[in-house]
Amino acid sequence: MKSSLPEKKWAGLRQRLGDWYRSARRNLPWRRTTDPYAITVSEFMLQQTQVVTVIPYYERWLKQFPTWDALAGAKEGAVIKAWEGLGYYRRARSLQALAKTVVEQGGELPRSEEGLLALPGIGPYTAAAVGSIALGLPLAVLDGNVMRVLTRVLAMNDDIARAPTRAKLQRIANAFLDKDDPSTHNQAVMELGATVCLPRNPMCLICPLKSGCIGKTRAEEFPVKSRTATEKRIETVAVLRHGSRYYCEQVPAGKPWHGLWRFPDFDPARMQKGEPIAKIRYSITKYAVIMEAVEAKWKRRAPVSSSVRYLTPVEMQELAFAAPHRKLIKFL
Question: What CATH number is given for 231-331 in this structure?
């Protein structure tokens, strides 16, 4: 399939975008390295997380786990603790699984898209990002920022929630890609979407692509995306005290937040409800959750196992807690 603009116009936009990026890009720590490991860490962390949040985690992570070998040999608990607060903990486990595979295969990333996609935790976006930025492979990234830029440039009305539209946008991104310098190009498109071609109030007057942008007079109409309705959910957790300690449990495998620690769900069959303590709001996938925390007492002896403990606030700081439960600790 041909792209929606002739190559001559793509070339002009490509040149203006690159010139803009070289003068306007933010000075981010992962842009100051050519180490494929460090670049891979940044790409895992930046998935579904804002840059300003990632920077301190990224810098601490590289001090604690500076190489593939260091991460591969680390205990999972230490890895999860280092990731605490970034959310989507599957990314941390996938990153460690990737490190173990890279070490087993000789300590370097494969230099092909097929080789990257065969690694654990690496899908099409990460393969394109790491492949182009760290290895110079001519692979075009397609994330939310890139889709927003391209749909506005082309005034494209296709629904980006649909797989055929994403496939079409990938072909367009491939046509736009500067194959001589894919690293700069991919970072430039993402940077444009993050700093200029914003979801709301885009700064079209200073955009380097404005002369060729078909949708610039109605930019906020793009991209078109059908939305799934958010469902509300209420859950109740129990705060069970024993002196200065609180009863906590480690989430078992197969459950959301597995491996993290949390306060237990209130169970009326085993617990007696006391006064309300706090309401904490958070979102997870399609749910908007209100977590109500209440004082509680056991009606019978507390269950005992290796995955439950009475913890002091100091001990809680040494363990990785699910984000809303960490908020509850701060409240307590």
Answer: 3.90.79.10
